[in-house]
Request: fold
Amino acid sequence: MKVSSTPPPTRSPQAAAGVSLWCSVGLMDRYIISEMALPFLFGVGAFTALVMAVGSLFELVRLVVEAGLSISAALQVFAFRAPGIIVLTFPMSMLLATLLAYGRLSSDSEITAMRGCGVSLYRLVVPALTLSLLVTGLTFLFNELVVPNSNRQAAMTLDRALNRDPDFQRENILYQEFGEILSPEGDGSFSRRQGLTRQFYARSFDGNLMRGIIVLDFSNEALNQILLAQRGRWDPRNNLWVFEEGTNYIVSPDGTYSNIATFGRQELRLSRAPLDLAQEARSPEEMNIQELSHYIDVIASSGDLQRVRRLQVSLHQKYAIPFVCLAFTLIGAPLGLRPQRTSSSLGLGISVLIIFAFYVLLFITQALGQIGTLGPAVAAWLPNLMCAAVGLGLLYRANQ
Reply:
């Protein structure tokens, strides 16, 4: 009799690689990471609910009651804001997870047993640091790929629902362009130096047309051309500006007008930056690192150094904030390793206190960075470094 047999199920290469990677991790490491998984997920849920209630829910309820925002629009805005708030809770959840996991292992004397087998305290913290690095990478990717777009969608949905115009600069658009200037020398040659080459001003902007335009050209050391136009717009097809109903003044070196010409339409190849400056009303939370870096370059060209400094602090924070996961793990692990029993409620309370102290410090350094007392990079990274230093000190003390 012929017997048919069913071949055993086979794993996909990706699944097999995942199983192989997990099996390659030591038993102790897997055990500690599994102890942290549930508190981490609990922290994400608990902190997300808390932050969303305080930071978003109350505002939306007020808009529903006072501004007539529809329930469906409020729910959409709430959903779009969720990614930005969830990723904010990752560092908090890592702190809670390390506190509770190591606290449970310590209170049940499992840490003592592991150390009796010759495992050092530093080695016991390695699984938590490994997991924190993974969460750091996940936080960075989430902040770059998901959060800016979802925050922008939330802002646009709220504007549409409340019949508010798109947010852009409507008046007094001033853009200064800096570059290379040719200066005549006594021997007839020209020297080159960096300085103000062009100033662009528009009295108003309706989202498409700029009105009341003045362009001053300083590219040859002194003011050498003045362009006045009633209207102007950016032509994206040809990458130039089109000005209408205006006058062109050519200025001689002695300050008099050498030529005056009116025009109905004139095309001028200038930078697109004035339009970017007027249209770009997004907050740093609605831009990824590349977009924010480009925006800083535009603002820097306009000469607004105070605004540049504020944006540079936000740019460096986009790199620094994900590493809060690592800093919180360095603090949470030694606190959890203390011989005293750490209950869930005590762990949550300690976590809230540490988080509160950290964000107070973050706001202080951010303000000092924005006013120029600290450099942008120092302002962004100093809370992380201080937190990590405290964590390393606690770990060293616990190992004595």
User: Anything to note?
Assistant: Confidence is low (pLDDT under 50) at residues 1-6.
